[in-house]
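All the exercises in this workshop are built on plain-text protein records. A learned vocabulary of local backbone shapes supplies the integers on the structure line. Once this layout is familiar, the rest of the handout is easier to follow. An example says more than a description, so a record of this kind follows:
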Amino acid sequence: MIVRDQPSIFKVLFSWRGTILPKILPSLGFVMLISAIIGGIEYVDLYRFPEIPLVGFTLIGVVLSIFLGFKNSACYERWWEARKLWGVLIATARHFDRDCRILSKARRERIIQNVILFANVLRDRLRQQTANPTELIETSGLSQQALTQLYQQQNAPQYTLSLIQWELLQALKEGEISDIIYTQMNAHVAALSEMQTGCDRIANTPIPFAYSVLLNRTVYFFCVMLPFSLGSLLGLVTPLLVGVLAYTFLGLDALSSEIEEPFGTQSNDLPLDSMVRTIEIELLSSLGRPTPPPIQAQDHNLL
């Protein structure tokens, strides 16, 4: 995720890192090149292309704007829901830290370590990656054998939650906590499980492919055909106006595709590494253990 201080208007205008321009630049350049060729030919009166009525592009542009707005709203809603779910994870980790103080020191440490482990393996599951085993052992307190057993599970986050619930059941059986306290603490386990279910739903249910393809093709058709309507009117200025319109439509299409999958490592995706590190620092500090340093943004990009 891009992290910047409040920039000036000048800096926003000429920003490059974190914008959608680098991704659409080849397509934008192609459209502007076509526009320049058509505008130049029309300007020197070398050839007159069949003029496409501008009203047709006006109607297509209005409809295209509506559908692009709908897609961007749907994609941003996915991004924002994912951020709220990870906010639930951070809040629940803090609840565990407070409520587990009633348990014995050893049991509390095991539960807190499993909460840290849950955050790590959930991030790795959503990003389809494998964590650095050395760092995971240091922060979670797992042994190498336990880590190997964890990676053998089909659903590592849910396996971690089962370890937390087992610890709570043992505390209940041994009379360490009452059934009321067990119910209260087990509600945190259920909250984490629902949080993972929500994240899995977002990760495994993208916007329908046919809808994205239809919209993408329409955008490119509109941008490529637009010079044929404006070339005779604007001449050499055609690439400028077509470039502005193409930047808007191509940019909105590319931006919605980027935030559609909020758990990745692109510039505008959620900073899952940073949120996991926040949980690690707070919980390890509560246990009186050394904490890892906060993750810093690299070139204004926070992972």
In short: The first helix runs from residue 9 to 13.
